[in-house]
Design brief:
Oligomer: heterodimer
Distance between the termini of chain A: 46 Å
Number of domains of chain A: 2
Radius of gyration of chain B: 17 Å
Shape of chain B: globular
Order of helices and strands of chain B: EEEEEEHEEHEEEHEHEEEEH
Distance between the termini of chain B: 38 Å
Largest sheet of chain B: 7 strands, antiparallel
Helix content of chain A: 25-40%
Order of helices and strands of chain A: EEHEEEHEHEHEHEEEEEHHH
Helix content of chain B: 10-25%
Number of helices of chain A: 8
């Protein structure tokens, strides 16, 4: 008998407790060639969309670190109109809940995006924390979060997620999102980091972004070794809904799908090499250094 | 891309052809087009990403990669010994399509990696131009029908052009040119090809993460718009990616 692995968010029931974080998975079409999405994922969270198409940042966009990957993609996307007309109809064939991730430059844009996202989407994720948009801060104040979520809430009747930054006053940000009507707080977007090119004596990434240490050179780090937010389990209890404690599996660094049969088994089912859990990465690094 | 998945394979042979340059042969039945690449992973968690390598040679029961050790990933791959296992994802990317008539393949340093398999699939008539900073390597692998012209910045025995391959190479008389190597070499070749109206197809290099077009980490800006190196590339018509002088 197949075990029941389904989980419920506030209004949305996912058949499996696994979904990709926005931006790591494109629109899912590329990975559909690798494995059957409907039997592997609980929902598909799209690449973040903006009102107008965005080219994204110039190269370099990636920098590997010993514990993860710095990226500077810059929200490259075809724009909401092209998504609605060309891509979204194709995604429906996956027979998965589709959560559409959007980013607006201001309150009005969030409202407009929420109005224009197809109502067939299972949910709307507001990206309130992109660390890669030139001139835009990745960490919004609680007031800014509130106004953006409220604008989207007014226009979007369905499941509404607010994706916040792990930096700054993140608990206030989560509470503001909740008060403005978000159903789920997605914890979290990536942490910022910096890579230095010692030969050039300059940062690797030249594209200005968010709120830098020196103008322009911090980029987000995606890592399997980034630990959970300090005290997050305790602090999240101060939010109202049980669902919020679950975090978002695709982005929650401490989440391990053991109840789904174990991490290794899950990764094998996706066609990936089995990654041992825990500190295997460090052990492997030490072994390489000794060799 | 249907049926694409990480596939485990065994190392058959690892040869160090000169210090820091290796040829790795793995067993199995693989398919690929000239200019396509695989992502190799010989570890579990560290380094974080697999390493993309173009197909150096392909036979019925094996697949070869030629590579230079540049960092911890290629170093780990260079330590594989016969019988060791690794994972491969591929073939990835678009690859090269042969033009009618005499064509030229131009490689700079380890940029020669995709040219052997390309030469074998393309067949004659073709000319090969290879440039090296120091001692040439892997010349003996190229099939006898290909006329191999060699340049070395350090000079060499008679027959070796003392200088850059882009100085030695003249595109006249070729229906198309296919090149892989350092950016400066590709741009210099482009200026020469553009002047005489010979199409140049370049295989570009960027850092790759997913390899299948989902993460957009390898996007470059072409004259036609953004293009993913791992899906729309790595081969591009030089006119689309370089600007004329």
């Amino acid at each position: 008998m197949e075990p029941d692995l389904s989980v419920s968010l506030r209004k949305l029931r996912l058949p499996l407790p696994v979904m990709p974080a926005a931006g790591t998975f494109g629109f899912g079409e590329e990975y559909a060639a690798l494995y059957e999405l409907s039997s592997s994922l609980g929902a598909l969270v799209t690449k973040t969309l903006t009102l107008r198409p965005r080219l994204g940042n110039p190269q370099p966009r990636l920098w590997e670190t010993p514990c993860g990957l710095l990226n500077s993609i810059g929200l490259e996307n075809p724009g909401l109109s092209a998504f609605v007309e060309e891509i979204f109809p194709r995604l429906l064939q996956f027979r998965l809940p589709i959560v559409v991730s959007v980013y607006g430059e201001n309150v009005e844009e969030y409202g407009e995006l929420a109005r224009r996202v197809p109502r067939e989407a299972a949910g709307l994720e507001l990206n309130l924390s992109c660390p890669n948009v030139p001139g835009k801060p990745p960490v919004l104040s609680a007031e800014e979060i509130f106004s953006r979520v409220a604008a989207a809430r007014e226009a979007w009747p369905g499941e509404l997620w607010a994706k916040i930054s792990p930096e700054g006053e993140w608990l206030s940000a989560a509470q503001a999102a909740e008060e403005a009507g978000a159903d789920v707080v997605v914890a979290t977007n990536t942490f910022r980091g910096m890579a230095l090119d010692l030969e050039r004596r300059a940062p690797v990434f030249s594209q200005p972004c968010g709120r830098p240490l020196r103008p322009g050179h911090q980029t987000p780090l995606s890592s399997h070794r980034v630990r959970a937010l300090p005290g997050s389990a305790h602090s999240c209890n101060r939010l109202r809904w049980d669902q919020k404690r679950q975090g978002c599996p695709g982005v929650h660094p401490r989440w391990r799908p053991r109840r789904a049969g174990g991490n290794r088994q899950f990764l094998r089912s996706l066609g990936h090499p089995p990654h041992p859990p825990g500190n295997a990465g460090l052990a492997e690094k030490r072994r390489l250094k000794r060799a | 891309m249907a049926g694409l998945a990480f596939r485990q394979a065994s190392v058959l042979e690892q040869r160090e052809v000169r210090p820091g340059v290796f040829v790795l042969r793995v067993g199995g039945e693989f398919r690929a087009k000239p200019g396509q690449f695989f992502i190799l992973r010989a570890w579990e968690l560290y380094p974080f990403l697999g390493r993309p390598m173009s197909v150096f040679d392909l036979s019925q029961d094996s697949l070869s990669f030629a590579y230079a050790v540049r960092g911890e990933g290629t170093r780990a791959i260079s330590r594989l010994r016969p019988g060791d296992k690794l994972w491969l994802l591929g073939p990835l990317g678009n690859g090269w399509t042969r033009a009618e008539g005499r064509v030229a393949l131009v490689g700079g340093g380890i940029g020669l990696a995709p040219l052997l398999f390309t030469a074998k699939v393309f067949g004659p008539p073709l000319d090969i131009f290879l440039g090296f900073r120091e001692e040439p390597f892997l010349l003996e692998e190229f099939p006898p029908f290909a006329r191999v012209h060699v340049a070395s910045e350090r000079g060499g025995p008679p027959g070796v052009f003392p200088g850059l391959v882009s100085e030695m190479f003249e595109p006249h008389g070729h229906a198309a040119v296919y090149a892989c190597g350092p950016q400066a070499m590709l741009e210099a070749l482009y200026q020469k090809c553009r002047r005489v109206g010979v199409p140049l197809y370049v295989s570009l290099e960027e850092r790759l993460a997913c390899g299948i077009g989902a993460c957009l980490g390898c996007t470059i800006f072409t004259k036609k718009g953004p293009a993913r190196l791992c899906r729309e590339g790595p081969v591009f018509l030089a006119d689309e990616v370089f600007h004329g002088a």
